[in-house]
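Worked example 3. Consider a protein that binds zinc ion.
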Amino acid sequence: MKLYLDPGHGGRDPGATGNGLQEKNIALDIALRIRTILANDYNNVEVTMSRTTDRFVSLSARTNEANAWGADYFLSIHCNAFNGSARGYEDFIHSSLSDTSQTARYQATIHSEVLKQNNLPDRGRKKANFHVLRETVMSALLTENGFIDNNTDAALMREASWRQAVAQGHVNGLEAAFGLERKESSGTLYRVIAGSFKEKGNAEKRVENLQSNGIDAFVSSTQISGELWYRVQAGAFRNRQNAQQRVSEIKEAGIEDVFIIEQNIAATAVSDYMILGPSRLSPEQMDRYARSIHPDAPLLGSYYLRFGEYYGIRGDVAFAQALHETDYFRFTGVVQPDQNNYAGIGATGPDNPGASFYTPRDGVLAHLQHLFAYASSEPLPEKYPLVDPRFDLVQRGSAPTWVALNGKWAVPGDRYGQLILALYERMVEASINELGALLQELQ
Ligand SMILES: [Zn+2]
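Given these inputs, the predicted complex is written out as C-alpha cells:
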C-alpha cells in the first residue's frame, strides 16, 4: 500500500495560528509520528511525504506528486481555527462523493479510530471541495485535528503524548482500512542516547534543551558497574538510518555527546515492553487510578516511582502488576492486606500465602527487587538491604520483558504479562483523559 502523507501548509504559509502555536508545525509533527509508527511497526506500507521540514510546497505540487507516484491513498493532516470557542475533530472527503463510495468507507473507519485516541469532541464526517481532495486521482482524506485558537484544544496540541496518540489513531485507522500487516518485531532496537549523567538535574536540563529544539526526550536511569547513571533517551528506532538521522539532528542543535545503543529484542510491539525503563506516570496518577476503582487503596505510587527509578525499572508498570496481583489492593486472593505483599511473592495457594513484610514500603521494595532479579543479571545495587526472600531463587536475567514473566512469576500464567500491560494501558489512558478534563475545568 502506497500512502502519500501530506502535512498541511509549511514555510511562509503557517496555516491557522493561535495560542502561540502554528498549524504548520503541529501538522508536521503529527505526520512525522505517523510515518515513524508505520515504518517501525508495519510491513506492507510505503510512505511518501509532501514535506518533512518546515518548507513551502504549493497545493498543486502536492497533488501532482501523489498522482505521479501512483499513491493508493492521500492523507492530509491539518488543524482548524474559528472563533476561539469551537473545538473538536472533523474530517473531509471531496463533496462529489457519495456516502457509499470507497472513499467514504475509508473515512468512516479512520474517523472512528482517530476519535478513540484524540480525546476531542466529534464534529462529524464532512465533505468539501478542497484542492487536495479534488485534484487527487486516488481516495483522499483531510483531517482537522482540533482548533488551534481554542485554549483547551491548543493545550492538548502542546503535549507530545497527545500528538503521539493522534498519530496512533490515524495509523490504527489506516491499518483497519487497508489491512496493514504488523511486523513480527524481533530484531534490533536502536536507542539514541543524548548524554549520560551522574546528576539527575543535569539530565533534566539536557531534556529541556532538546525539547526547546523540538526533539522529544526523557530521562531513564541505568546501572553501569553498580553505579547509577541518568541517560537522556531521544528516540528509539527499528531502523539504524532513522537513528542516525536523529543523531545528526541532535548534533545540529549543538549537542555532541550523543550515541546509539543497540539492543536485541525478540517479541511483538506491545509485548516487547521491557521491565527495565522509565516510568511515564506520576505517583499521583498511579494512586488516583487505583482509588478510582478501589477508594480505600493504599497510596503506594511514590514508593513504586522511587524504588523503580533506583533499580531502573518501570515503576508504573510494576504498580499495574500490583493492581493485577492484589485485585486493586482488595486482596481477594490468598494474600492478606497485612502481609504488605503486593506481588504475591512466594504465594502458591491457600496453604501458602507467601512472604510478609513489616511495612508497605518494604513490600514495594521487595517487589522491585524481585523484578530486578528477573530483568537483570547485574548484582543488586547496594543502597537498600535485600528484603526479597526469594531473590536468590530467581534465574537471573531470565525475563527482560513483562511478557517473559509468563510461566515464571505466575504459573501457568500464559497471559500474565499481557494482562499487566493491558491494565497499564488503561492507567495511561485514564491519565490522558484526566488531563483533558482538567484543561476543561481551567478554561
Ligand atoms: Zn490547514
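Take a moment to read the result before moving on. The CA atoms of residues 90 and 123 lie 5 Å apart. The two ends are 43 Å apart (CA to CA).
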